[in-house]
């Protein structure tokens, strides 16, 4: 029958730990310091000046670094303020020019209406202006709204004010706005605007960076598409289209916002006038031997000359 032996006594390591805590200075260092003091090797007279000089040098380096680091900050702030003021001034000038354009357009419309007698030509001009989006219109219709899914607010991304967060993801793009607009045109809409921008036959909807551009004007979500027309026909036709079915699916899959509302009255502004850069009206061919007349008179006189020759 074996018995366990008693563990050996470990008093030496415990004693060393106690000495290390109570007296952290090694005896050898203490003896060396004592011998150096006996030989006169203590502190020198220049030790304190050297310490003071070192402190001054460190402080000077710190001050120079601080000045160099913050010297450009006021200049950057002044540059930013100047750029902001220039942008605001340009915006004010653009607003003033826009109001002048509106005033001149109203004057031009009055002069044209007074000079143009009522009749078929005036009605044709009105239909052409309506189709080109050059006149403000109002009437019943529908509004369709597309919204981006809600972002989780638990982890906001820090960044410069006005910048796009790095982790920002956009599900809705220009293709979504275009698909809704094209479907509304197909369903019989008479006039359409997107976020306050009136669409014309030459309007373009593109995607640049993180913004959707409508006629080169940036718009952001939510996208509100307003269409004037028969509200019942528009809402019924659009609800039965493949476009509406797609966004109903995206509501449940990606969490986007999609809504359709009937409106009794929608007011759409006139679009900005667009001058074609390359298109020019074709010159009218005028016979050299005859004076310009109406087409019917010209055709009859030509036939008369031919029969009598």
Description:
Helices cover about 50% and strands about 15% of the residues. It has about 300 residues and is an alpha+beta fold. Among the domains are: about 45-115; about 140-150 and about 170-270, Alpha-Beta Plaits, CATH 3.30.70. Strands 3-2-7-1-8 form a 5-stranded antiparallel beta sheet.
Distance between the termini: 153 Å
Low-confidence stretches: 154-167, 288-309
Lateral arrangement of strands in the main beta sheet: 3-2-7-1-8
- Separate helix tally: 9
Largest sheet: 5 strands, antiparallel
Question: Would you summarize the structure shown here?
Answer:
The chain has helices at residues 11-22, 27-38, 47-70, 72-115, 120-132, 174-186, 231-239, 242-253, 295-307, and strands at 137-147, 191-194, 197-198, 205-208, 211-214, 217-219, 223-228, 257-268. It is of the alpha+beta class.
Summarize the SSE layout with pairings.
Layout: H1 11-22, H2 27-38, H3 47-70, H4 72-115, H5 120-132, E1 137-147, H6 174-186, E2 191-194, E3 197-198, E4 205-208, E5 211-214, E6 217-219, E7 223-228, H7 231-239, H8 242-253, E8 257-268, H9 295-307
Antiparallel strand pairs: 1-7, 1-8, 2-3, 2-7, 4-5, 5-6
Please give a handful of descriptors for the protein shown.
Alpha-Beta Plaits; 309 residues; disordered C terminus; alpha+beta; three-stranded antiparallel β-sheet; 8 strands; five-stranded antiparallel β-sheet
